[in-house]
Amino acid sequence: MAKLCPESDGYMYRLPTIRKVSPLKKIARALTVLVLMVLGALLLVGLAETSPTGGIWGVLGARQATVGILAGHWEYDSGAVCPDGLQEVEITVDIANRVARLLRRRGYRVVILPEYAPQLDGFRGVAFLAIHADSCIDLSGFKVARMTQAVDREQEDRLVEMLVREYADATGLRFHADTITDDMRQYHALRRISPQTPGAIIEIGFMGGDRHLLTQEPERVASGIANGLLAFLRERPSEAAASE
Ligand SMILES: [Zn+2]
Hints:
The protein is α/β, with parallel strands linked by helices and 244 residues long. The protein has two domains: 20-50; 64-243, 3-Layer(aba) Sandwich (Aminopeptidase). Helices cover 46% and strands 12% of the residues. It contains nine helices and five strands; from the N terminus they run ααβαβββαααβααα. β1, α3 (88-105) and β2 (109-113) form a beta-alpha-beta unit. The longest helix is centred in the N-terminal third of the chain and has 28 residues, at 23-50. 34% of the residues are buried. The structure holds zinc ion. Zinc ion binds next to loops.
């Protein structure tokens, strides 16, 4: 025998009853709406006061400004590897996330990109930075470079200059201008992003000689990078920042 479906089995159709809302409930609902509105207003005031970019409108304008951070080797390979197994990609992903957090706190939209992200093609933003670490040898120091054939050299030189200044200041590492290779200046991601996007690559230190800094003091590393980017972005005309 076919089984009746439970909905039609033994249930009588009932007329919907009209529920009366008690006046007390109405007051409670009105109060809830009021509380939510007050909380929303407080949030806006809070944003306006903590913003370094000039109030709530500054935050909303800057929020549209996108910064691209490439975590070196992510979703591709390990990068450099130390004898004990420490991988470059572990460091670059950790630092990229920390930098992103610091920039988001200042109102920027941050996209963290893997080494060969399809979004790199024509990527548009107010700044782009690829993060790598140097090999696991007993050397110390960092490098920053822009692409050889940058369209706006003056602007990219300024990006490099700010990163060098702030990174050296935060980490105490020495800048190795003389060891910057053509691989850095011809880095694939810098060739793929939009020519209008100021871009650079940073080698944040050697996994050998700078291991303690890179693995035990990542917040210093990240703040050096974020401060460099922010110093560069602060000098941009505000209308350009808001339109991208
Ligand atoms: Zn690398």
